[in-house]
Design goal:
Shape: elongated
Largest sheet: 2 strands, antiparallel
Order of helices and strands: EEHHHHHEEHHHHHHHHEEHHHHHHHHH
Number of domains: 3
Distance between the termini: 62 Å
Number of strands: 6
Strand content: 5-15%
Radius of gyration: 26 Å
Amino acid sequence: MVAPVKYWKLVRLEASGTIAEIDRPPALQHLETEHTELVSQDPLEDRTLQTLLVEELKQAHHQAALCLRCYTSHYILISCHRLVQTYGEHYGLTLSALAPRTLDDNGHLDIEITYHNNQLSIQRPAQYIDERGDRYQPLSYRILEKFDPQKGSLSGWASRLTWQDSKLKKFLKEEYGILPISDWALLNDTQPQRLKGILIKHFNFSNPDKPPKNPGPNYQREVQQLLTLVTTLEAYHAIYRAEHTPQRGKPCPEPTLDQCQRMIAYLNLSENNPEDFPTKHLHPIADYIRRHRLKQMPPQAMVPTSGGSSIPSELLLLFDRYLRESVAKTLTNHLSRQKPDKARKILTILHLQYNEYRSQTNIAQELGLPGQYTISRLLNFKLLSIGIATHMAERLRNDTPRLAAYFNDADRLLHLQDQLQAYLETLVSEDEKLRYNAAQSRQGQRSQLGEAICDFLEQYRPH
């Protein structure tokens, strides 16, 4: 049986500008002579093989290193496709722009490997030293230097570190204004029922709660796909999110193999390969959420302020997280100060306004209230906006060390408070406009603020 091709075919960028899979015979020979029994298994125990190859890598075994480099290259390419799928339409990012900075391993055996004091170093030969005394290091080398098979799968490691690689992040930030937020943070922030609504409304998934009179041939399959995605997020929340302790300024870690195995058991899946679980089941959900949130951004790519500076759109994803937290806290506090009957009335008004796209005049008539002004007084949007802005400003102050990474100088960071206020004013103005248009047609697109309020309505449970 031939060894799995991912371990002996290298994905790289050719001089012609095309991306190709190149056979690397030394890698295939090593697998078939040193790991014959293991590579003949079906299914292959990737974790076992990768653990053995890493031990050989630490002993400066070049063929073992080549096997790992080949495998890593396939998942770098997958990550590049995900970046383009996620940010291509919004930012103009292309695979041809990413490939020279990611698929840059030539596949040669002549590399320098050292392992000392538990530190692995992989470098190209000395002839690649430039005039500054630096050696160019391909992305696959940087990934393998940090890989620990006891902490996760190489597929997940390669995917995560491609997105988090400092050189690639610098390129994306400077050339496109992109700073990716981790999949795990997005999944933590999204409730399963919210995901269901996003998939139905924004990605045209069939709605199992409102079946058509004459369902098409693909209806049942589409419904099952929707329910699978929602249930998978439920499993993620029940296991990863329940066990995750946020640490300020630090990204969410990748789910451990044990957590992935328990998610597989939770979902009662027939597969038994926790290494591939994030790639096959979690990353696709995060892609839907990220693409949806990008579509909710204000129309302009940058939100300007009077000072002339601007906020990169990708940073607005972080502000969106602040917004959702602030809406939830502000509305919860507001409702807790009301008498029960008044609190129920406010919740009903918000539901009719944001979920059914009703005008305030129409809502007042249905609830038997004197007029539209009564609705405005009950909601008191001006006071709510102040509360949301106050909480967002507090989150900004608490997150200053993390936000410093987004800016090259302290002055721009100091202006961020003003920019945040301008951003919120833009959202409130956009919300008023969309609510008016939606009330005229009884259908429409929710604003970003409206999405946050709907999230709150789905999750809120009175004490």
